[in-house]
Specification:
Elements: H1 2-26, H2 32-47, H3 49-53, E1 57-59, E2 66-68, E3 72-73, E4 78-79, E5 84-85, E6 90-91, E7 96-97, E8 102-103, E9 108-109, E10 114-115, E11 120-121, E12 124-126, E13 131-132, E14 137-140, E15 145-147, E16 153-155, H4 174-183, E17 188-190, E18 195-196, E19 201-203, E20 210-212, E21 217-218, E22 223-224, E23 229-230, E24 235-236, E25 241-242, E26 247-248, E27 253-254, E28 259-260, E29 265-266, E30 270-272, E31 277-278, E32 286-289, E33 294-295, H5 296-316
Parallel strand pairs: 2-5, 3-6, 4-7, 5-8, 6-9, 7-10, 8-11, 9-12, 10-13, 11-14, 12-17, 13-18, 14-19, 17-20, 18-21, 19-22, 20-23, 21-24, 22-25, 23-26, 24-27, 25-28, 26-29, 27-30, 28-31, 30-32
Antiparallel strand pairs: 1-2, 15-16, 32-33
Length: 317
């Protein structure tokens, strides 16, 4: 049976090896280190339960969780029961990984960071003294699809290492292949002293890294799309949605349920009222509100005028 399984798996393994070889030959020198870490993570990710069964994962002495033999974990780190730390991951001094959490291949977590229960980290780095609350997911693929010529909805080429077998990826020439593969080595980068609320999702980058600056605080149930860059000391309230490739400066405050469209830029020290929607760049500091977002005093006048008009219109009827 084992021999049959090896023969069945060999075409995928050969495809993955060919892709990895092409990556090593074609990637720019500046990406060499990141590429090596990524390919190591790809190998670990593809092994799955077989790796655990074969003894590549071992119990951790401090907390009862398990980690891959190729992970680098400080002796003071705690990995609680039910947590898993994968190949190439790095946990710094006094890190705590809660039960049910998964630290994916080649993820790094800085000193004194607390990873709460059922958090999933992949394709990312987390700085020092951070707190990531229950159920948060960081580093997964962004939301990107297109309708092909056959009328079917297809995912844009930003898949992670598990798709190296190229089962559903259409590649027309070598140039496209190289472009696709370069996308694979981008990540989400979380700064120092960052707090991320429960069930918040932060997608990894496709053409640039997704970045969360130092001291930024993010509430529960926030969606941050791929390629988003957020500056330092920002405050993002619950149910905010930030579409892909948006850029926020430093000290930006977003009230609850603020929506930010893709590819817009927001200057430092901007504050947005709850339920506002940003549809174009905001280039000056200040307070804004409404849909589309405008300076706060203008929004208040619009709201007052609408009420006056509504009363007059109702009186005529």
């Amino acid at each position: 049976m084992a021999a049959v399984m090896r023969r069945t798996a060999s075409p995928k393994a050969a495809a993955a090896a060919a892709v990895a070889s092409l990556l090593r030959r074609s990637a720019p020198p500046r990406h060499a280190g990141r590429l090596a870490r990524f390919l190591g993570g790809a190998s670990a990710a593809s092994s799955g339960n077989a790796a655990i069964a074969s003894g590549e994962f071992v119990p951790w002495h401090n907390g009862g969780g398990v980690l891959h033999r190729a992970a680098s974990v400080d002796p003071t780190a705690v990995v609680e029961a039910g947590a898993v730390v994968h190949s190439g991951a790095v946990l710094g001094k006094d890190v705590v990984v809660g039960s049910g959490a998964v630290v994916g291949p080649s993820v790094s977590v800085g000193q004194s960071t607390r990873i709460w229960y059922n958090v999933v980290l992949s394709n990312c780095s987390v700085g020092e003294f951070c707190t990531i609350h229950n159920g948060a997911c960081i580093g997964q693929d962004g939301f990107g699809f297109f309708v092909g010529e056959d009328g079917q909805v297809k995912k844009k080429p930003q898949a992670s290492a598990q798709y190296f077998a190229l089962d559903s990826i259409e590649i027309s020439n070598g140039h496209v292949l190289k472009s696709f593969l370069l996308l694979q080595i981008l990540h989400a980068k979380i700064g120092n002293h960052v707090e991320i609320g429960a069930n918040t999702c932060i997608d990894r980058g496709s053409w640039r890294d997704t970045v969360i600056g130092d001291e930024t605080k993010i509430d529960n149930l926030v969606q941050i799309g791929h390629n988003v860059v957020i500056g330092k000391c920002c405050m993002i309230c619950g149910q905010v949605g930030i579409a892909g490739s948006a850029t926020l400066g430093d000290y930006v405050t977003l009230g609850g349920r603020v929506a930010i469209r893709d590819h817009v830029s927001i200057a430092s020290k901007v504050r947005l009222a709850a339920n506002s929607s940003v549809t174009k760049d905001i280039q000056k500091p200040g307070d804004y509100g409404g849909f589309p977002a405008v300076p706060i005093n203008e929004w208040r006048r619009q709201t007052a005028n609408l009420r006056i008009f509504s009363k007059k219109d109702g009186g005529r009827r």
